Amino acid sequence: MKLLNEILGTKYPIIQGGMANIATGEFAAACSNAGALGLIGAGGMRDADTLRENIRRCKALTDQPFGVNIMLMHPLADEFAKIVVEEGVQVVTTGAGNPGKYIQMWKEAGIKVIPVVAAAVLAKHLEPLGVDAIIAEGTESGGHVGEMTTMALVPQVVDAVNVPVIAAGGIADGRQLAAAFALGACGAQVGTCLLVSEECPIHENYKAALLRAKDSDTIVTGRIGGTPVRVLKNRMSREYVRQEKAGADKMELEKYTLGSLRRAVFEGDTATGSLMAGQVAGMLHEVRPVAAILEELWESGRQRMAALSELC
Ligand SMILES: Cc1cc2nc3c(=O)[nH]c(=O)nc-3n(C[C@H](O)[C@H](O)[C@H](O)COP(=O)(O)O)c2cc1C
């Protein structure tokens, strides 16, 4: 099995997950310079030029491979899809849907296409379209989530397709990274553990909330309404879920989430902001440079794999 770093040309077999409103060109470049594949998150961008500028800034700051994450339900997805071609981006990951209609254009431009899936059935559907790899993302992860856990999902995606599979969701230390390889993945995508990096541009209140979080401090809003998102528990998310269970309609619930990610990221509003985070938030204890987080993740993963092989 080829490791992800051999496929992507990175130092580590690790992808920094695209994070809407957070993963700027600067942040992606920092992650690429530190040995992962940095991804610019196009998800929260309000216009196409913003993506173009972020790509150009990233290019100016790193000579390492980087990519762009496109959320397919974004109204500008068609434009974003063209910009990555025009700007010579090397890797595209996609979230929330089926990128089928863009794949031919991206492959002709030599772009590596790596969709995120939350169930094996979508992976099976995408493989014949020519994707280069699949990210299997479990419900432990921060942000938009599916139902299946990483532990159950990854081996079933590995069995369903012949392309390399990358595990995402619930990976923040070497034990979990080793587990990802044990499940058949060729590497990992992480998001939550990088939120508490020095380079991550979220408000310091958001970072402080992550450092305070315990293992059970996340909650999924929108499980009933159809757009499940994992966030830290706070006044907004608790109230959202309470109203949701009480049968509130979608429009009624939207008033809680409208602008809430920006409130968390830029204003540090920890009471009514949407503090997207995965279940590993309880494992974060300090703010460190991205390079230190990634090096420890990889080195402790290697040590764990070596220790496990001695058991046999
Ligand atoms: C704050 C936050 C925002 C995210 N936004 C996106 C996004 O815009 N697009 C996407 O494909 N995934 C998004 N994700 C998921 C990550 O790319 C990654 O798959 C996930 O964080 C991995 O699980 P972990 O949080 O347990 O590390 C987001 C995750 C977080 C924590």
From TrEMBL:
InterPro entries the UniProt entry points to: Aldolase_TIM, NMO
Signal peptide from the UniProt entry: none
Lineage: superkingdom: Bacteria
Keywords carried by this UniProt record: Flavoprotein, FMN, Oxidoreductase
Record-level Gene Ontology MF annotations: nitronate monooxygenase activity
Xref: Pfam families: NMO
Function summary: Nitronate monooxygenase that uses molecular oxygen to catalyze the oxidative denitrification of alkyl nitronates. Acts on propionate 3-nitronate (P3N), the presumed physiological substrate. Probably functions in the detoxification of P3N, a metabolic poison produced by plants and fungi as a defense mechanism.
UniProt protein name: Probable nitronate monooxygenase
Native species: Faecalibacterium prausnitzii
